[in-house]
Automatic annotation (TrEMBL):
Domain of life, per lineage: Bacteria
InterPro entries: MetI-like, MetI-like_sf
Localisation: Cell membrane; Membrane
Protein name, entry field: ABC transporter permease
Annotated PANTHER family: OLIGOPEPTIDE TRANSPORT SYSTEM PERMEASE PROTEIN
Domain ABC transmembrane type-1: 130-341
Regions crossing the membrane: 38-55, 132-157, 178-198, 218-239, 284-305, 325-348
SUPFAM superfamilies: MetI-like (SSF161098)
GO cellular component, one term: plasma membrane
Keyword Protein biosynthesis: no
Family indicated by similarity: Belongs to the binding-protein-dependent transport system permease family.
Length: 357
């Protein structure tokens, strides 16, 4: 009885490479990479929380001092002591003990009490303002990213064409401050043409809820601030994507794809734009994190009840608890956005998956 010998052909170009090892051993979960990233994000979160605790306390005065000044000495010393115990600002307690108490509060989901919002819980104050910022600025950031990246890819693909005029125009608009563009839009579209309201999130007397009247009010009042954010931030996405496209189009694989007779649309979106968009994803993750800090002026111009305006009020009142709660939301937004960017990077770039497998 003769034994049959099976010969397995191996591509010599893959011998000794990561692709060969992955093919032989199956898909390997990059536990070392996952553990390293988890440790990095955990340390970053702890460092941000620590800085978030100590930084406001470097300021002169505190929330109780500001509240006492506004009350013009009407509070007794016992009332002041009670307020300091409530806000964790008792000067007789060591700073390290206040820090430990603050960490314990965070572990139990307690962000403290806000003195600038009528002694309301910080979580409730943030929850009432955050949806407005996410709904308006978050949506505007996504829209500007998608439009700017797509437009930049097309401009880079058709370099030297008529579409190049968009680059200096959008770049110039990106150098104009938010409040100038917002004031111009208010003067033209609201005061002159009367197309959109000049400010606020909805008209007084409208009952908030999932009804047509309220939703229409929210859309009409949010149109001008959203348009302002898109116009101002569009230039950065267009310029960044166009420059990356010019670099990618000189690569050999683009020349090979075109030499094989592939349609230009497929080469543009499946090969060139897919690789050129990778740096844009990291920039987008950072842009998501800085939504709060970048909207303070815009919300002031349009009197929009977002979290940026709430942060400004908390800073003016030296409301430590509310400031720390908003900064914590900002840190979490940055970390989550970067985690999503890492996942998107691995999906769009096969080399990342091979290296970490």
């Amino acid at each position: 009885m003769s034994a049959e010998t099976t010969t397995v052909s191996v591509d010599p170009t893959l011998v000794g490479t990561t692709a060969t090892r992955a093919e032989r051993g199956g898909v390997r979960v990059p536990w070392r990479f996952i553990g390293g990233r988890a440790a990095f994000y955990a340390f970053t979160l702890w460092a941000a929380i620590t800085i978030n605790f100590f930084l406001p306390r470097l300021m002169k005065g505190d929330a109780v001092d500001a509240y006492m000044a506004r009350s013009q000495g009407q509070l007794t010393p016992d009332a002041e002591k009670a307020l300091r115990l409530m806000f964790g600002l008792d000067k007789s307690v060591p700073l390290w003990q206040q820090y430990v108490d603050y960490l314990n509060m965070l572990l139990h989901g307690n962000l403290g009490v806000s003195i600038s919002t009528g002694m309301a819980p910080v979580g409730d104050a943030i929850a009432s303002a955050l949806p407005w910022t996410l709904g308006l600025v978050g949506f505007a950031t996504v829209v500007s990213f998608v439009i700017g990246t797509s437009l930049g890819a097309v401009i880079g693909w058709r370099r030297g064409g008529k579409l190049d005029v968009f680059v200096p125009v959008t770049t110039f608009l990106g150098t104009v401050p938010y409040f100038w563009v917002g004031l111009i839009f208010i003067a033209f579209f609201s005061s002159t043409l009367g197309w959109f309201p000049a400010g606020h999130a909805y008209e007084l007397g409208v009952e908030p809820g999932f009804n047509g009247d309220f939703i229409g009010q929210v859309i009409s009042h949010g149109a001008l601030p959203m348009f302002t954010i898109v116009v101002v931030s569009l230039g950065g996405w267009v310029l960044g994507m166009r420059n990356m496209m010019l670099t990618v189009l000189d690569e050999d694989y683009i020349t090979v794809a075109q030499a094989k007779g592939m349609p230009n649309r497929r080469v543009l979106w499946r090969y060139a734009a897919r690789n050129a968009v990778l740096p844009q994803i990291q920039s987008f993750a950072l842009a998501i994190g800085f939504i709060v800090s970048g909207t303070i002026v815009m919300e002031m111009v349009f009197s929009y009840p977002g979290i940026g305006l709430l942060l400004l009020q908390a800073t003016s009142a030296k409301d430590y608890a509310l400031m720390q709660g908003i900064f914590l939301v900002l840190v979490l937004a940055v970390l989550i956005a970067n985690i999503v960017a890492d996942i998107a990077y691995a999906i769009l770039d096969p080399r990342t998956r091979q290296t970490e497998a």
